[in-house]
TrEMBL record:
<dbReference type="GO" id="GO:0036064">
    <property type="term" value="C:ciliary basal body"/>
</dbReference>
<dbReference type="Pfam" id="PF03133">
    <property type="entry name" value="TTL"/>
</dbReference>
<keyword id="KW-0206">Cytoskeleton</keyword>
<dbReference type="InterPro" id="IPR004344">
    <property type="entry name" value="TTL/TTLL_fam"/>
</dbReference>
<dbReference type="GO" id="GO:0000226">
    <property type="term" value="P:microtubule cytoskeleton organization"/>
</dbReference>
<keyword id="KW-0966">Cell projection</keyword>
<keyword id="KW-0436">Ligase</keyword>
<comment type="similarity">
    <text>Belongs to the tubulin polyglutamylase family.</text>
</comment>
<protein>
    <recommendedName>
        <fullName>Polyglutamylase complex subunit TTLL1</fullName>
    </recommendedName>
</protein>
<keyword id="KW-0067">ATP-binding</keyword>
<dbReference type="GO" id="GO:0005524">
    <property type="term" value="F:ATP binding"/>
</dbReference>
<keyword id="KW-0969">Cilium</keyword>
<keyword id="KW-0963">Cytoplasm</keyword>
<dbReference type="GO" id="GO:0070740">
    <property type="term" value="F:tubulin-glutamic acid ligase activity"/>
</dbReference>
<dbReference type="GO" id="GO:0015631">
    <property type="term" value="F:tubulin binding"/>
</dbReference>
<comment type="subunit">
    <text>Part of the neuronal tubulin polyglutamylase complex which contains TPGS1, TPGS2, TTLL1, LRRC49 and NICN1. Interacts with PCM1, CSTPP1 and LRRC49.</text>
</comment>
<dbReference type="GO" id="GO:0005874">
    <property type="term" value="C:microtubule"/>
</dbReference>
Length: 411
């Protein structure tokens, strides 16, 4: 008799449910016997909590790692990347090479040559003094403040004067914003004030990444990401510092703008972006940018891999937000553990349906029944529109068999 596959979801989204139903899977509740759980991050944490004592069996898989926040919380991501760089430096690894750069103010600062993948960032209030020291090297520079645990652009603001930060700090002793508590920690990052513009507008890239294991690291990049555009032309003038339609690409912010176009949702596919770049900057420059973005993603994963609870029942789809500056250098802005599955346009719905379909094909063994004991090496057919970004297990096998290996540049 054929085994029924049961699924459970906290997210009543048609792109998820229709994918499960198309496979003939049966929906059950979280209290029932489920094989595949598409859960909210909080519910996933509850399942793994020691108090709960829930033990998953071999035929159960879930869509988050227990401590996914090590990469998705802005402060922890920064902390893990900084620790990773320090460790490589200690080992004398050439990846951690540094150089001195001259800032616009004429001051000299030290930067990583290869691992300069996030803007200079501090966690407040803990790193306040370090931030002030850095700020004084190039006064009048713009910094962006973000609450560590919030998403969708909530509570973000820009500052270009220390006095503005001091004023905020005084006012924050009382909840100055209904959605924010005064105890919250923030990250403050040097604002990328020279973004690459298309049609005069700022944008960022949303790329989808599937991780099926952190040790060994196995990560797959989805081919259909997109650019998210601001609705208002970019303007660095101080008068526009508080205009989030100029600075924040989040759709949750931009869709309230007067200029928002609901047909294309302010989005452009990665394929079209690539063609645009090849046409305006040339193919080799475009190839380098995409290789640099892959490098950035791989090293952000390597930075968190040692601290991730690598449970074999888990996989995770991350939404990577990357900003490209006008020198075509990519910067990692943040990583989302629950990228939105809300479809704002027809193309969006197609993309997200395909994303979920391909994820299921990659994480479920060939017989179609979830199994945590499976070695997680999907066939080329099962990958669909995912490409292998890094697979340390395959790399090791290839090294032992001495076959050439296209992933070796990530070592």
């Amino acid at each position: 008799m054929e085994k029924r596959v049961t699924y459970c979801t906290d997210l009543e989204k048609s792109v998820i449910i229709s994918n499960f139903e198309r496979r003939g899977w049966i929906q059950v509740g979280p209290e029932d016997e489920w094989n595949f759980y598409w859960s909210f991050t909080q519910n996933c944490r509850n399942i793994f909590s020691i108090e709960n004592g829930y033990r998953m069996n071999d035929n159960q898989i879930i869509n988050h790692f227990p401590n996914h926040y090590e990469i998705s919380r802005k402060d922890l991501l920064v902390k893990n990347i900084k620790r990773y760089r320090k460790e490589l430096e200690k080992e004398g690894n050439p990846l951690a090479e540094k150089m001195e750069v001259v800032l616009p103010s004429g001051q000299v600062a030290t930067r990583y040559v290869h691992l300069d993948i996030i803007p200079v960032t501090y966690v407040l209030p803990a790193d306040y003094n370090m931030f002030v020291e850095e700020y004084r090297k190039s006064p009048q520079s713009t910094w962006i403040m973000k609450p560590c645990g919030k998403s969708q652009g909530t509570g973000i603001f820009l500052i270009n004067k220390l006095s503005k930060l001091k004023k905020w700090s005084r006012e924050a002793k009382i909840p100055f914003h209904p959605q924010l508590s005064s105890k919250e920690s923030y990250v403050i990052s040097r604002y990328i004030d020279n973004p690459l513009l298309i049609g005069g507008k700022k944008f960022d890239l949303r790329l989808y990444l599937l991780v099926t294991s952190f040790r060994p690291l196995k990560a797959y990049l989805f081919k259909h990401g997109f650019c998210r555009f601001c609705t208002v032309k970019y303007d660095t003038s101080v008068t526009e510092l508080d205009n989030m339609y100029v600075h924040l690409t989040n759709v949750s912010v931009q869709r309230h703008g007067v200029e928002y176009n609901s047909l294309h949702g302010g989005k452009m596919s990665v394929q079209n972006f690539r063609l645009y770049l090849e046409g305006t900057r040339g193919r080799s420059v475009t190839e380098k940018l995409f290789a640099d973005m892959h490098w950035l993603i791989v090293h952000s994963l390597k930075a968190v891999a040692p601290v991730m609870a690598n449970d074999r029942h888990c996989f995770e789809c991350y939404g990577y937000d990357i900003i490209i500056d006008n020198t075509l250098k990519p910067w990692l802005v943040e990583v989302n553990a629950s990228p939105s599955l809300q479809s704002t346009t027809h193309n969006d719905r197609i993309l997200k349906y395909k994303l979920i379909d391909n994820i299921i094909s990659v994480v479920v063994p060939p017989d179609g029944i979830p199994d945590a004991r499976w070695n997680k090496i999907p066939s080329a057919e099962a990958l669909g529109d995912f490409e292998v970004l890094i697979d340390e297990e395959l790399m090791e096998k290839e090294e032992n068999g001495c076959r050439p290996n296209k992933n070796s540049r990530y070592r």
